[in-house]
Automatic annotation (TrEMBL):
SUPFAM superfamilies, sorted: HAD-like
GO MF term set: phosphatase activity
Pfam families according to UniProt: Hydrolase_6, Hydrolase_like
Organism: Symbiodinium natans
GO cellular component, one term: cytoplasm
InterPro entries per record: HAD-like_sf, HAD-SF_hydro_IIA, HAD-SF_hydro_IIA_hyp3, HAD_sf
Protein name (Swiss-Prot/TrEMBL): Uncharacterized protein
Length: 287
């Protein structure tokens, strides 16, 4: 299952969620988290623990897009050795609070952080607040809350596309809704801009790619699961991703598509977006 807007709103567990999870557990239904979080799974699990969502061993596994991106980076670094790869890093201001990689962690992996597309071997994005993170040329942006504050990222993405520098995205979400209706822009927006500028070397990890679903399903199958259903709020990431992996899906209508679904049915929205239909739909994740 997905996490934001299904289990919590970014700060608090949503009403009915704990009871629903416990009801499923009492019926011996194994569960796993499949998340587009750029955090690696131990840090993502810690964030869930702070919300009280890892008590009673509710989940058999936590799999994140950050895990997938980390493995890909390690592969690139290993293949390039002894040459030290140069990375232009776009991230969060507070990597500790967000649970994402610090510049020191990337350097310890074997990367050099640089402040221009001409110098870099690839661009890595796991946040949208700081460009050239880890260098003396850091530039902060309000793009997370203000889509118009995108000049520095637009310049980098266009230059990277023109030079055909790879773009690696550890969080494929485009937007996320936070508490009180706040909309947050995410690195998935960069994928669109890079591709629109002619970039051909795009590596996006997480949902809707099938591998993240299959990775979680392997753990569930070891627990005896034979029929797997993914619960999420995004037609593009959750429903399409589950369908691509061969799984059933439940769309939570109160999530990212809530404003659109006030004026149309789920089936009509699927037709407009060109996505598969979910197997089931529910107003919110509750028993």
């Amino acid at each position: 299952m997905s996490v934001p807007e299904v289990l919590h709103d970014g700060r608090d567990v949503l009403p009915g969620v704990r009871d629903c999870l416990e009801q499923l557990q009492q019926r011996s239904i194994p569960m796993a988290i499949v998340s587009n979080s750029p955090c690696e799974s131990p840090k993502a699990a810690l964030r869930l623990e702070r919300l009280g969502l890892l008590q009673k061993d509710l989940f058999r596994d936590v799999v994140t897009s950050g895990d997938q991106a980390k493995r890909y980076l390690e592969k690139l670094i290993s293949e390039a050795a002894p040459v030290r790869l140069r990375c232009l890093f776009i991230s969060h201001i507070d990597h500790t609070e967000r649970g994402t990689w610090s510049p020191e962690e990337l350097r310890s992996m074997g990367l050099e952080l640089v402040a221009s597309v001409d110098e870099c071997d690839f661009v890595l994005a796991n946040g949208v607040q700081v460009c050239y993170k880890g260098t003396l040329s850091e530039i902060t942006s309000n793009y997370e809350s203000d889509a118009s504050d995108c000049a520095v990222f637009k310049t980098v993405l266009q230059a990277a596309a023109k030079a055909q520098r790879p773009l690696i995205i550890a969080n494929p979400d485009c937007i996320v809704h936070r508490k009180n209706g706040v909309t947050v822009n995410c690195p998935g927006q960069f994928a669109k801009q890079y591709s629109a500028s002619g970039g051909e070397h795009l590596y996006v990890f997480g949902k809707p790619g099938p591998e993240i679903f299959r990775e979680a399903s392997r753990t569930l199958e070891l627990s005896g699961a034979r029929r797997i259903c993914h619960v999420g709020d995004s037609l593009c990431h959750d429903v399409s991703g589950a369908a691509g992996a061969g799984f059933a899906s439940v769309l939570v209508r109160s999530g990212i598509h809530a404003p659109e679904l006030q004026g149309m049915s789920v089936s009509e929205l699927c037709r407009r977006k060109g996505t598969p239909y979910p197997t089931f739909a529910m107003s919110s994740f509750r028993w």
